[in-house]
Every structure is written in structure tokens, then in C-alpha cells.
UniProtKB/TrEMBL annotation:
Boundaries of every Alpha-D-phosphohexomutase C-terminal domain copy: 464-536
Catalytic activity: N-acetyl-alpha-D-glucosamine 1-phosphate = N-acetyl-D-glucosamine 6-phosphate
Binding site for Mg(2+): 68, 284, 286, 288
Residue ranges of every copy of the Phosphoacetylglucosamine mutase AMG1 domain listed in the record: 184-291, 306-446
EC number(s) recorded for this UniProt protein: 5.4.2.3
GO molecular function: metal ion binding; phosphoacetylglucosamine mutase activity
Keyword Metal-binding applies: yes
Protein name per Swiss-Prot or TrEMBL: Phosphoacetylglucosamine mutase
Length: 545
């Protein structure tokens, strides 16, 4: 790096001093924290994104400003690689280092070392870098986006493109499309969803009714707004009532949204007795997660159809199409985490599907799903998608050419191709997930209640334990067993044995300073009791803080 380049970085870094006592880690979903403390972090991630773009030149990188389901006063930042996937894990340590550099000088020296090691060429007449910026609807987003812009353009030869307010999956989709040389606008995103959705609806063999009403809880975030845009401009026939749009004074993620509904298992604000029996869906704050629910009585308690149930519905539909094709060469697999309800795993295995487990965090599930021709992944919290390998889609498209129009086989192929266009291939996407659930329910002719009957969740319990050092817990790669502290797994196994269909595991959280405990068993009482006794074990092995 030459003097002018260094001066440019120093000058812009002086504008964004690191707040004292801020210690950040890139974590499972980028950097997150109190929005008032994040300007330096976002600025530095802007620099990182420019370097990533130069390293992979010519390619566009995405930078999203969001804190997903966290409270409105928080914000965060994460990076999308050219494929639309999460930033490569190889760059995470560098992200941690620069985010925590105590002065502009230290920051620049870390960047210099990194640029040399990675052989990144800056401003020597080669390809320039390009970073696309998006933000969710948080009030702090605009100022943070400016910080990101300054960071991006402080790397000579790099430009920032402000795409404004978007859902996280929209930004990932657009980055992916751009790098594939496709139309990469928001309009193109909506058109792609619309075309594939309509195609799937047209392929429904019977029952083309427009379906009963769906009510969406938009978490007072960007998802509701974008869904309105989609309905207004593209899918005006779809009967969806949108609540919690953020315009009626509701606060982002406060007693609303997918995370609240999934964790608390109660109705979000804005829903009540009048909605008994109605099909409802909740997005999270940046619309990369969705869960369905309905009220079975006038109480607040809900019947929850979580990520596991969405996964099961999708798996059933995809498998049905593959059965029509009698296509033994397609490797279909599903990916879950240890949090998946045991009843869902049994159900999926009962369908004859290959079920594999990944560590918590979307990037881990995505990686495993990408190993299949068709890989379906979902976390119980509602984040997931269906990945189609490019080779398999090409094979399908070729196959369709030899089939007679309107035959069962041709329709099955067309459905699979349309699903691959509808469902976001980059990350979990609540809007496209919703559209696919709606299609599959109509295809099956099912109500939400009927869908819920696929299997009955085993009662479960989650407990958070505050400990002096959560990193003392080390687990196997699938997080189902604890390797450290020594002896704790034997003790947990001893507890599990006491309960019918007992299952429990512990893991250090990637987003909070706690150890998480998950327990399930045949009755709620047993699940609670198993959860509590495992939490006690964590305290006795690690000490409580
Ligand atoms: C993040 C992850 C989510 C995971 C959660 C676990 C992404 C986009 N998000 O929100 O997938 O379930 O962390 O949190 O990867 P925990 O480690 O605190 O339990
Ligand atoms: Zn989210």
C-alpha cells in the first residue's frame, strides 16, 4: 500500500473512533450491539467489504445493516459474499481484529499486513471494488449506512452503492444476481418471485381457489412493508392482511415477530380472539425468518408451526415431485440443528429422507445443504431455504424438453424448476418462504390445522445459564454432545435416562454471554424437569456468575 492509500484510510478512520470498552466478535450473524456504539464497527466493515471485493475482483460484495430480531435500539452489520452467502469464515478473524483495533494507526497497520498477506491489489489500475449497501427499517440505519459508505470509499478504487431499505434476503439475492450477470434490481426480485409463484399456482391440479385469508405479522419491520409492495404491484390477487407494519406506532420486534412468537409461543400484539382458527404468519425484523401459527382458543397461547414444520411441508412437496419423476439420481437431503424437535426428525426419517445435522447458525446449515442436489435446511426458529445445485437445475431443464406438455412428469419438473426460482438460493427469505408455503398448502388442499397434524411436537424446554466463561463448554460439531468440561456429558446422559424419549444438550451461545440448555421429553413436566436438572449441572461444573 502506498502513502496516499494509507492517508486515505487514516483520514476516514479518524472520523470514527472506537468507543471505549467495546469488544466485538463477528459471531453467527455479523456484529451486533447498541446502535450508538456501532459507527466505527460499520465503517470498518465497509473497509473490509471493499477489500473482499478487490480480493475476489471482479465481484460485488453486500453489506447489510440490521440487527434482525434484536430490540430497536440495537443494530448490526454483516457481509454477503458474491454468491449471496455469508462472508467466508476464513475472513472472520480479520473482521474481529479490525473491529477491535484501538486506534486508527493500529487499524491501518492491521489492514496493511492483511492486504500483503492476501495479496490484494489496491488501485493499481486493475478491477475496482464495488459494495452494495442495504439497511433494515431501524432509525439508526441511515447514519450507520453513511459510515459504511465512507469506509467503503476510503479504499481507493472502491465504490459504495446505496440500495436503501431492504430485507436482508433481498440484499443477498441482489448481490448474487449481480455477480451472475442477471438483472439485480428490487423489481427483478419481485418479478422473479411473482413469475415462479404464478407458475406454481397454475400447476395445481385441482382446487385453484384463491385460498382462505392469511394474516401477516410484519414485526413492525421492513418485511411487512416489502410484502405490501409485492401485493400492491405484482400479486394483487393474493389475500393477505398485513398487521404490525410499523406505521401504527408499534415498536420493531417488541412483543411481535417470528422470534417472539417462536420463543414465547403466544400471539403477537395485534392478534386476538377474532383470529381464532385463522392462518397467521410472523416475520422477524429483517424478514429472513418466518413461522406460522394459529389460535385454537381465545387465549393467548398458539399452535406454532415452526421452521421444522415448514421444512417438513417443503420436504413432502419436493419428494412428491421427485417420486413422479422416479428420479433415483437426485440426492435429496434435509439439514437440521440439534434444536429440531425430535418428532420432526422422526417424521422426516419416516419419509425415507436423509437427515443430517449441522451446528447452529445459518452458514453451517447452508454449507451442508449445498452438498445435496436438492438440500432443504431450516432452523427451528424459522430460518431456512431449499438449495438446488446448478447441475441439477440444468438437468431438469434439459429433461423437460423431452417431455410432453401437461404430462405428470413435465408438471413435476416444472414445479421443481419454479421452486428453485421462487425460493431464495442465497439465504432464508421470509417473503419467498411464505409464498412457497401458500403454494404447497393449496397444492395439497390443506388448512393450517391439517398441516399442523403432520406430527405432534415433543414438549421442550430451553434454559439460559449465565456462567463466568461460556467458552469452557466445547461441543461436538453437531452440538449434540459436550466434550468439555470433562465428565459433564456423562452426567447429562444420567439425567436423560430418567425420562421417556428424553433428549438434552448444552452449547455456548454465539450471540449472548450464556450457555444454552435444550431439553425435550414426552410431557412438558418431564421436559421442564430435565431442562432444570441439566441447567443445574452446568452451574455445578462451570460455576454461576
Ligand atoms: C443467529 C443466527 C441464527 C442462530 C442464532 C443462534 C444467522 C443469520 N443467524 O441469529 O441462525 O439460530 O444466531 O443464536 O446465522 P445463539 O448462538 O445465541 O443461540
Ligand atoms: Zn433475521
Amino acid at each position: 500500500m502506498d502513502e496516499t492509500q494509507i492517508a486515505s484510510l487514516l483520514k476516514s478512520s479518524d472520523l470514527f473512533p472506537l468507543p471505549q470498552s467495546l469488544k466485538l466478535s463477528y459471531g453467527t450473524a455479523g456484529f451486533r450491539g447498541d446502535a450508538t456504539l456501532l459507527a466505527s464497527t460499520v465503517h470498518r466493515v465497509g473497509i473490509l467489504s471493499s477489500l473482499r471485493s478487490l480480493k475476489l475482483a471482479p465481484s460485488t460484495i453486500g453489506l447489510m445493516i440490521t440487527a434482525s430480531h434484536n430490540k430497536v435500539s440495537d443494530n448490526g452489520v454483516k457481509v454477503s459474499d458474491p454468491s449471496g452467502e455469508m462472508l467466508s469464515q476464513e475472513w472472520e478473524p480479520f473482521a474481529d481484529q479490525i473491529a477491535n483495533a484501538s486506534s486508527p494507526q493500529k487499524l491501518v497497520s492491521l489492514i496493511r499486513e492483511f492486504v500483503e498477506r492476501e495479496e490484494i491489489s489496491i488501485g493499481d489500475g486493475g478491477e475496482g471494488g464495488e459494495v452494495w449497501l442495504g439497511r433494515d427499517s431501524r432509525p439508526s440505519g441511515e447514519a450507520l449506512l453513511r459510515a459504511a459508505e465512507i469506509g467503503v470509499s476510503s479504499v481507493p478504487g472502491c465504490v459504495a452503492v446505496d440500495l436503501g431499505v431492504l430485507t436482508t434476503p433481498q440484499l443477498h439475492w441482489m448481490v448474487r444476481a449481480k455477480n451472475k450477470g442477471l438483472k439485480a434490481t428490487e423489481k427483478a426480485y419481485f418479478e422473479s418471485l411473482t413469475t415462479s409463484f404464478k407458475c406454481l399456482i397454475d400447476l395445481i391440479p385441482f382446487n385453484k381457489s384463491s385460498g382462505s385469508k392469511l394474516v401477516l405479522d410484519g414485526a413492525n419491520g421492513v418485511g411487512g412493508e416489502k410484502m405490501e409492495e409485492l401485493l400492491r404491484g405484482y400479486l394483487s390477487n393474493l389475500a393477505i392482511e398485513i398487521r404490525n407494519t410499523g406505521r401504527d406506532g408499534g415498536v420493531l420486534n417488541e412483543s411481535v415477530g417470528a422470534d417472539f412468537v417462536q420463543k414465547e409461543k403466544v400471539v403477537p400484539l395485534g392478534f386476538g380472539v377474532n383470529d381464532v382458527g385463522v392462518r397467521c404468519v410472523s416475520f422477524d425484523g429483517d424478514a429472513d425468518r418466518l413461522v406460522y401459527f394459529y389460535l385454537s382458543s381465545g387465549e393467548k397461547k398458539i399452535e406454532l408451526l415452526d421452521g421444522d414444520k415448514i421444512l417438513s411441508l417443503f420436504a413432502l412437496f419436493v419428494k412428491e415431485q421427485l417420486n413422479v419423476l422416479d428420479d433415483g439420481c437426485c440426492r435429496l437431503g434435509v439439514v437440521q440443528t440439534a434444536y429440531a424437535n425430535g418428532a420432526s426428525t422422526d417424521y422426516l426419517k419416516g419419509l425415507g429422507l436423509e437427515v443430517v445435522f449441522a451446528k447452529t447458525g445459518v452458514k453451517h446449515l447452508h454449507e451442508k445443504a449445498a452438498e445435496f442436489d436438492v438440500g432443504i435446511y431450516f432452523e427451528a426458529n424459522g430460518h431456512g431455504t431449499i438449495l438446488f445445485s446448478e447441475d441439477y437445475v440444468t438437468l431438469l431443464v434439459d429433461k423437460r424438453k423431452g417431455l410432453s406438455e401437461g404430462s405428470d412428469e413435465c408438471n413435476a419438473v416444472s414445479r421443481l424448476v419454479a421452486v428453485s426460482n421462487l425460493i431464495n438460493q442465497a439465504v432464508g427469505d421470509a417473503i419467498s418462504g411464505l409464498l412457497l408455503v401458500e403454494v404447497v398448502l393449496r397444492h395439497m388442499g390443506w388448512s393450517v390445522q391439517k398441516w399442523n397434524e403432520l406430527y405432534k411436537d415433543l414438549p421442550s424446554r430451553q434454559v439460559k445459564v449465565e456462567v463466568p466463561d461460556r467458552t469452557a463448554v466445547v461441543t461436538t460439531s453437531e452440538e449434540t454432545e459436550a466434550l468439555r468440561p470433562l465428565g459433564i456429558q456423562d452426567a447429562i446422559n444420567g439425567e436423560i435416562k430418567k425420562y421417556r424419549r428424553g433428549r438434552a444438550f448444552i452449547r455456548p451461545s454465539g450471540t449472548e454471554d450464556v450457555v444454552r440448555v435444550y431439553a425435550e421429553a414426552t410431557t412438558q413436566e418431564d421436559a421442564d424437569s430435565l431442562g432444570d436438572s441439566v441447567a443445574q449441572l452446568v452451574k455445578s461444573f462451570l460455576g454461576s456468575s
